[in-house]
Task: structure prediction
Amino acid sequence: MRKFVISDIHGSYREMMQLFEHAAFDPETDQLVVVGDMMNRGPDSGPVLKEIKRLHETYENVHVTIGNHEEMMLWYIGNILDMWLQFGAKEAADSINETFSEPGEVADLLEWLRTLPMRWDDDEYVYSHAGFEIPYGDTNRENLWMKRKDLYRYSKQQILDETGGKTLVHGHTPIAAVTFDGARLAIDLGAQVVSKRPKLALVELTEFLAHVYDFDQETITTEPIKRGTRSRR
Result:
């Protein structure tokens, strides 16, 4: 079984589907983990959410964790905080309402989002949208908003001790390239967020490859992930 992970899609439906096709991802036989921030910023929040929800509910090898952008929408709908308005709420809401147009579909989507965990583990990796504070607490919602500098203040050994020797896979903070430092694998390449060379990565963990969609060039490249390196960005 091949293992794939993707994060911070931000409404990039066409690009996500092209990456799945490029990597020949097969949900019948491959594992996929989606590490949050499926929506907002980009034009197709609805289609992204619908496809990932479909995969998650259809195939036992597809797993999804929540990100802070899904959390923002739930806060807004729950009259907790209106931060969502600053991150393209109208465009995302229009896309969601258009895509989930049948009676009860939006309510079903919201209930699905509420059930998503902040962290998922397999036998080799720990997946968490922005990482986590040590010690990890599964009710600490601030983990969804953790800044990169706070995550990387921990030593590699501290992370590995917390995960039982597993690599932590996270997104949340855009970087220039998929980066592995021996304990943390960072995969957010700034899709729909950064103005300079935005990209979206589908990472094939089995072969330690990054399938990368370049928004400027409208091309996909596949590159090996360097081991034991740190991004300078």
User: Anything to note?
Assistant: The first helix runs from residue 13 to 22. The first strand starts at residue 3 and ends at 6. Residues 66 and 113 are 7 Å apart (CA to CA).
